[in-house]
Design brief:
This protein is 36% helix and 21% strand. With 224 residues, it is α/β, with parallel strands linked by helices.
Length: 224
């Protein structure tokens, strides 16, 4: 079996497991799957020089980067924002473009903003966007404190502590939008949320090929 075939087989099996657990990935088509494998190949290539991720093995990247990103697809907006000045999804502190690039690949109808301050990581993302033909992704190299854009959904994979992320996300998320906090253990979420947030759900998620505890807290941003 070729390297790409090995990765594709792992991706297909992982998507079946995610779908069985309730993640809406069952309709991901052939072009999108090929794009996801291409993304892994690019990440593995650039990682040898730029040290973008601690994961070195391409097979592990399928589980720990692709599938771990795609598990967030259940919280993506159902449709694009009516206001064209508002992004649909903002990913804060994206590193090598995770989860924003895999999510953008499977939802070409939505507009994504990737915010990352590290130059070598944004350069990788820009190259990936170019090679993958992702016209729905804007890559912004800046500190989040300087960003004045807003989105329907604000998320982060590993940016900062949950309470700090919620505080930062308050100005980034539109009223009635949502902030998705990716956690390890559920108890990392503060018992009392900041003002103007309501906990909509706290869900344990299982990522194929990984055995670490994962939870996602979806916090609704209220008016005021």
């Amino acid at each position: 079996m070729s390297s790409d075939s090995h990765l594709r087989d792992a991706l297909d099996r992982g998507l079946l497991e995610l779908a069985a657990a309730g993640t809406p990935v069952q309709d991901i088509g052939e072009p999108e799957r090929e794009g996801l494998i291409h993304l892994v190949a690019l990440l593995a290539k650039w990682n040898k020089v730029y040290n973008l991720t601690a994961v070195r093995d391409s097979r592990q990247m399928v589980d720990r980067h692709l599938l771990d990103s795609l598990v967030m697809s259940r919280w993506l907006p159902a449709k694009p924002a009516d206001d064209q000045s508002v992004f649909d999804v903002m990913d804060v502190g994206t590193g090598a473009g995770l989860p924003v690039l895999p999510l953008a690949l499977i939802r070409p109808d939505l507009r994504f903003l990737s915010v990352e301050s590290n130059g070598k990581k944004t350069r990788f993302q820009q190259q990936a966007v170019l090679e993958l033909g992702l016209g729905n992704v804007t890559v912004l190299q800046d500190r989040i404190e300087h960003v004045d854009a807003q989105a329907q959904l604000v998320l982060s994979r590993a940016f900062t502590a949950p309470v700090d992320f919620l505080r930062i996300a308050q100005t980034l998320c539109v009223p009635d939008g949502a902030v998705a906090v990716m956690l390890g253990r559920a108890e990392r979420l503060p018992e009392t949320l900041l003002p103007h947030y309501e906990l909509q759900e706290l869900v344990e998620v299982e990522v194929p090929g990984t055995d670490s505890a994962r939870h996602v807290a979806l916090c609704r941003r209220q008016h005021g």
